[in-house]
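Sequence in, structure out. Go.
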Amino acid sequence: MDREIIEKSKKLIDSTDNKICNHCLGRKFSDVLDFKDNVTRGIEIRKNLAMDESKECSICNDIFLKIDDDLIKKIDDKINYLDVKFDTFLVGSKVPKELLEKDEAIDKEFNFETENIKKEINREIGKLLEKHFNKEVGFEKQDIVINISFLNDVKVRIQINPIFIEGKYNKFIRGIPQTKWPCRKCKGKGCSECDFTGKQYKESVEELISNTILKETKGFASKFHGAGREDIDVLMLGSGRPFVLEIKEPRIRKIDLKLLEDKINNINKSKTAYHNLKFVERNRKAEIKVSSPDTFKIYKAFVKCENEFDLNKLDELKALNRIEQFTPTRVEHRRAKLVRIKHVKYVKTVPIDSNNFEMIIKTEGGLYIKELISGDNKRTKPSVSDILGVNCMCNQLDVVELSEK
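Output:
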């Protein structure tokens, strides 16, 4: 062993009156001594110094003695109590602040640049748990995080990480919102107005899928992330709207999504449908939420005019292109007030009678179609009302398709 290491290790041991365990002694030389672990490093250092092993440690306060069979049993009991299934895990820990400060003071005094004590604690617990559960530590991705607090009594808390399921949905009936809406009167607490459900509407696209998946996964709660949303009175047809469903604290992670998809669609037949369900990573929920403005939407609108319109002017709607749309009145309470520039790709019209016509329109995502038709008191320019010279309104609207081109 290098003489410089021997001299430095002797000074460290002397500074603690030999009250230093092999974990803490070996850890300080982990960057210069190549042994399998810190304990082995500590033992080898003592052999070279002909010094006995210490029975107590003034640096870690003997915290490594608490990493024993009793701790593993406590963790095992907690996991069994929760009845959680997992393949990968990570260990986290909380240790007394003064312990960390002592460890850092030693580093500063002797110019050590090695890992801090928490990393070794987590690693030592992780090694025991890998053997006990026959599972792997997952540094990049893990099903659960096992948190151990050494602040007073040893306490164990299990963090169950969420799962994310991507798919597309269709909505076949009007009056169903995309996500759960709290009751406007009681704000979700439950009152006579909402029949004590806490909800403004009885069901939603989110709940019609999440209720079943929560039962299958024994999850705690769900959160729906959609690629935009249609109004409550608008159908979602075609290949469907992309979404990611986040299931929080699922105690069962491995489920057959194809069987589940069939089950959910059978339950919700004629209301909603869900397709191409698959597991995805966490970052996909953010990608889905910002993807809506990058897509094109095809709508079918039934337009009702206040007065008879000039049939010849319908062709002028085909020239719609650049639209300047100030935040619509109906959403200004929840959207920033600004002018959005959107583009129309094409328009097709089919007259129904002198006051009504059908319009198929393909636009960039984020364009409000109802206001494109009405003009919204000149907030949208140009508008169908402007071009036809009569007040128009969208009587019925369907999303026919979403596409990237």
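Check: The first helix runs from residue 3 to 15. The chain has four domains: 1-59, 62-160, 163-292, 295-403.
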